Amino acid sequence: xxxxxxxxxxxxxxxxxxxxxxxxxxxxxxxxxxxxxxxxxxxxxxxxxxxxxxxxxxxxxxxxxxxxxxxxxxxxxxxxxxxxxxxxxxxxxxxxxxxxxxxxxxxxxxxxxxxxxxxxxxxxxxxxxxxxxxxxxxxxxxxxxxxxxxxxxxxxxxxxxxxxxxxxxxxxxxxxxxxxxxxxxxxxxxxxxxxxxxxxxxxxxxxxxxxxxxxxxxxxxxxxxxxxxxxxxxxxxxxxxxxxxxxxxxxxxxxxxxxxxxxxxxxxxxxxxxxxxxxxxxxxxxxxxxxxxxxxxxxxxxxxxxxxxxxxxxxxxxxxxxxxxxxxxxxxxxxxxxxxxxxxxxxxxxxxxxxxxxxxxxxxxxxxxxxxxxxxxxxxxxxxxxxxxxxxxxxxxxxxxx
Length: 402
Fold this sequence. Notes:
single chain; 402 residues; alpha/beta; five-stranded mixed sheet; 13 helices
């Protein structure tokens, strides 16, 4: 059994402040009574926490209800609102061939973004860190803010990450993401950097703003180039002993699957194979390499070759989802990543075949977040950190927009 942490006054203050900030993040100006109802705190504690957060710069006190046009009798109700520009957080998606950085305010609204292509295997860690820092700088400039406003950073990487935020590089490819990013950006920028597996962040992001909103038992599968999954069970993200919960390498052993290649990769590969034959198909009119989006468009228009590729993809994904449903028994399995924009055509065939591969079929959906799913989850992770540690963070003076 894990050791219990004593409920010291300092811990209770921190927990209370985090609960209040979490509620204010999703609300407009609210009264003390509203905060009490949402958090379960007493009136005295609520007032003390709100006043403390006002002093620290996290919260603004607005005009009372009487001045606002509300109550006319009795003591006027005090109203508080999150200062959404008190600071910003960064959400990073650090892939093998691209780095994307999003700047968000304290409500989770995107203020700026930058994305640049990159080949991880061509340079060393120092060069990659400098590149990531450059993308972050471009995102901050697009948001009209500066590095001193950053309260926390969360970066998603395509490798297992344990509960302590360390990359578990047991394979050579995963070692490409063991960069030393956290100490490097702490030293050069003063930023707190949280590392997390990209599929885990996809699960956090989709449960926050996607198809899995409000669902406590869900598996989100990143399905574009390679398959990987993030697991939320009972409302909590599952990491496993060494950060490998959700890894799908076992698919090498699953009949009809055999590897972890994703939908985009397979659609592209199978389209190239079809074009090498004499089969008539509208895909021949595509200039350059045929991508998954063109395959799905052609299938939607009735192209026989594209429909055959979709049939193969549906069978394969039904087997993948079937193993996940059997092992984890989630309420929902979400297909996410850039390919999700087109993969809606697969939902019907996957759901129809799912009962062939599991006795506990889950509902299947595609994420509406597209290729932003990882950065959305990274922003959520960074905001969670800020809320938990609000009493320990120093707010900088607001930056003047460029």
